[in-house]
## 1
Amino acid sequence: MTLKRKRPTWIPVVTGVIKRENKFLLGQRPESGSMAGVWEFPGGKIEYGESPEEALARELHEELGIEADIGDLKLSTTHNYGETGILLLFYEVKYFKGTAKPVHHHEIKWVDRETLKSENLPEANKKVLNKILDMF
């Protein structure tokens, strides 16, 4: 008897790398959700019918209250959290209108390269952090 393997669940996620004056913007995940308290590059899941760029613009508005000009796709990677896989797309965000504020996140902050390396980031971000720093 051949066992049929369950097809894994994949979630497409967009992330904005926002850099200003050699500092990167991070948001702290809220206490009420998964990975509570972890610092992350802002972004989120792509909803059905959205392009990655549309999804990131929507997420940045929802999470930070900004109107962002989504730049180029800089990096794509995958990561598994248990039975769920994520396809993670990192976009450059050079310009935005408004003042970033923690609408969704518990807190936001700007950190330099060295501080970024020591932050409590999601595993999916940690494994590609050196590539991100090389690109930015």
## 2
Amino acid sequence: MTESARRYPSTIGGAVYLVILLVTLGGVGYAVLGSWRVGVGWISASLFAAAVARLVFTDVDAGMLKVRHKYVDAALLAGAAALLAFLAATIPNQPG
């Protein structure tokens, strides 16, 4: 394939990956500059969206979302999302 014929990103999963990456980076920025709970919530939501996208797309279309078997990827992403959401909801406010 010639360089001029290549599309960037070359799969729909690659485009979704970039959107998820941008939302995650936005969540990190919001956690640093604003409310950390809201920022972690955005990170959690983006990981959950990645898990859903991994389940929806085929292995060929998943692009950079594909690392392992489809259900292993989705379970790890959803588990990390659930854990972050749980931690953000249950950690008490600190004085000061």
